[in-house]
From TrEMBL:
Protein name: alanine--tRNA ligase
Native source species: Candidatus Giovannonibacteria bacterium GW2011_GWA2_44_26
Entry's Gene Ontology molecular function annotations: alanine-tRNA ligase activity; aminoacyl-tRNA deacylase activity; ATP binding; tRNA binding
GO cellular component: cytoplasm
GO annotation, biological process: alanyl-tRNA aminoacylation
Family matches, as CDD domains: AlaRS_core
Keyword terms, alphabetized: Aminoacyl-tRNA synthetase, ATP-binding, Ligase, Nucleotide-binding, Protein biosynthesis, RNA-binding, tRNA-binding
Length: 568
């Protein structure tokens, strides 16, 4: 069965059994505690904790999805028979709708529906902290699965081992000796004293990798022989080593999805992950003297094929190609210099490897593949460098570091703080102006403000015309020239939303929030230009902002635009 058929069968199966099919969330998660989306349950966390109501949002306590996922922990392992960075996670979820009996039966019924037989399953064997999951054991046996194996906490228990928090046993399904489906039963809450309390609303969270499912369904020896990968291998030069082919295809696939979701190559966070895997591709391309059109062709085919199920990839095809080419161009000179710096020696010291990494941007794993070196020595050189850098920063900023760094706003001293405050208030006006010119479909998707400029990301599906840019800029400056008041009022989150206060949809807000209103607030009724939830610094009157100027606009992903602007 082709992967496209498996996706369709999975969603149709659960939809017919009362589950609401929910589209994949972005690889850039709402949860600020994680860098990238690594599992299907991430977008549903607030429904397990009770922060959100699944009936209100989905019309059901049960959902199913196919989630785009990316795990950085496996980057160094890519190239073997099973490890990937990007993968697709099939899952069904229940937030108090059903529990063990129904979840296990659904799993068995799904495999029956696609003619796959279960070899064996595992259940939690219990330990001194948590009892044996006898219920799951008996349910599997009642369904005719004779080989039910007991396994320990490491494999069959989800949750904190010593800390406080929700937790529960898992049961895993094996086909052809491979773990295919993991079903988590979130049924306990572990207290600080290690005592377990049963949750009032137990939940079900399952995950099954499409790549592994395709492998067993198609009778292949490894995931790379499936139709998810094999067509792209045929486009690569035959003489390339198998490991190199696997790394190239995996990294290209991950890059396509990251770029489509708005990630851009950079030296921090998700952007660094993208840059790291792209540059690894470019090294293989360079070493094997591959013409540029080969991998660009693979990239195009991936965006087209996966775009049939993930339309954001089809929409971002041109952006994906442009970002790929731009990063290759940036890296080419550094790569040439870096390869020359490696010299003729058969191996490097850790310090030499770090110097090349620091000077030319070749990642440690790339250098290791070209010339071996001691990882411990490399890490020591890196720690020493970071220590020196930290002392330099301390000296530069008088021992206090940045005066302001909220993640969104950054200022090194009082002068920069004043500029950042003006730019921050201007960003409120910018969002309001964009919505007035382009419509209420515009929503904030991120911002970053320094003393030099504001950078504002927003949802919109096309390039703004010159006339629209002019109108937006003019509206902001009109608000500045009208000398509008800027007033803050604390209120309940519910009341703020009723007032129509704009908010960043990825942000989690407390029950009591600060609402900033900008406009002629003394008029009857008040003339509101902008109203937002916010906790940052603001001017008291828009006349303090100065002349607002849009510097440039650009695309940052499918359906996402970015404006850079400044104030004089």
């Amino acid at each position: 069965m082709l992967a496209s058929e498996l996706r369709k069968k999975f969603l149709e199966f659960f939809k017919s059994r009362g589950h609401t099919v929910v589209p994949s969330s972005s690889l850039i998660p709402d949860d600020p505690s994680v860098l990238l989306t690594t599992a299907g349950m991430q977008q549903f966390k607030k429904y397990y904790t009770g922060e959100a109501d699944p009936i209100k949002d989905f019309g059901s306590k049960n959902t199913a999805s196919i989630q785009k996922s990316f795990r950085t922990s496996d980057i160094d392992e890519v190239g073997d028979d099973s490890h990937l960075t990007f993968f697709e996670m099939l899952g069904n979820f229940s937030f108090g709708g059903y529990f063990k009996k129904e979840a296990i039966k659904l799993s068995k019924d799904f495999f029956d529906s696609i003619n796959l037989g279960i070899d064996y399953v595992t259940v939690f064997e219990g330990d001194s902290d948590t009892p044996f999951d006898e219920e799951s054991y008996k349910i599997w046996q009642s369904l005719g699965i004779k080989d039910v194996r007991k396994s320990g906490r490491e494999d069959n228990f989800w949750g904190p081992t010593g800390a406080e928090g929700p937790c529960g046993p898992t049961t895993e399904v094996y086909i052809n000796g491979i773990e295919i489906w993991n079903i988590v039963f979130n049924q306990y809450y572990k207290q600080k004293n290690r005592k377990l309390e049963k949750l009032k609303t137990p939940g079900v969270d399952t995950g099954m990798g499409l790549e592994r499912l395709a492998m067993v369904s198609q009778g292949k020896k490894n995931i790379f022989e499936t139709d998810l990968f094999a067509p792209y291998f045929e486009l690569l030069p035959e003489e390339l080593p198998e490991r190199a082919k696997r790394i190239i295809i995996d990294h290209l696939r991950g890059s396509v999805f990251l770029i489509a979701d708005g990630v851009r190559p950079s030296n921090k966070e998700a952007g660094y992950i993208l840059r790291r895997i792209l540059r690894r591709i470019f090294v293989y391309e360079h070493q094997n003297k591959m013409p540029a059109h080969i991998l660009e062709g693979v990239l195009h085919d991936m965006a087209h094929k996966y775009g049939e199920f993930y339309p954001e990839l089809a929409r971002a095809g041109e952006i994906i190609r442009d970002e790929y080419r731009e990063e290759r161009e940036k890296f080419q000179k550094a790569l040439d210099k870096g390869l020359r710096a490696l010299g003729d020696a058969k191996k490097l010291t850790g310090q030499e490897a770090f110097n090349i990494y620091q000077s030319f941007g070749l990642s440690p794993e790339i250098i290791q593949e070209l010339k071996p070196f001691s990882k411990d020595e490399f890490d020591k050189a890196k720690r020493e460098h970071l220590s020196v850098s930290a002392k330099g920063a301390e000296k530069k900023f008088g021992g206090h570091g940045l005066l302001l760094d909220t993640g969104e706003l950054k200022a090194a001293n009082e002068e920069e703080l004043k500029k950042v405050t003006r730019l921050h208030t201007a960003t409120h006006l910018l969002q309001a102006a964009l919505r007035k010119v382009l419509g209420e479909e515009v929503k904030q998707a991120g911002s970053d403000i320094t003393a030099e400029r504001t950078r504002f990301d927003f949802t919109f599906d096309r390039k703004l015309t010159d006339e629209e840019i002019k109108k937006v800029e003019g509206l902001v400056n009109l608000a500045v020239n009208k000398k509008y008041q800027v007033k803050m009022k604390e209120m309940a989150l519910e009341d703020a939303l009723k007032l129509g206060a704009l908010h960043f949809f990825k942000e989690k807000y407390p029950q009591k929030v600060k609402v900033y209103s900008i406009g002629d607030l003394k008029a009857d009724p008040p003339e509101i230009f902008s109203r937002e939830l916010c906790g940052g610094p603001h001017v008291k009157n828009t006349s303090e902002i100065g002349q607002f100027k849009i510097l440039k606009q650009e695309a940052v992903g499918a359906g996402l635009r970015r404006i850079r602007a400044t104030v004089d």
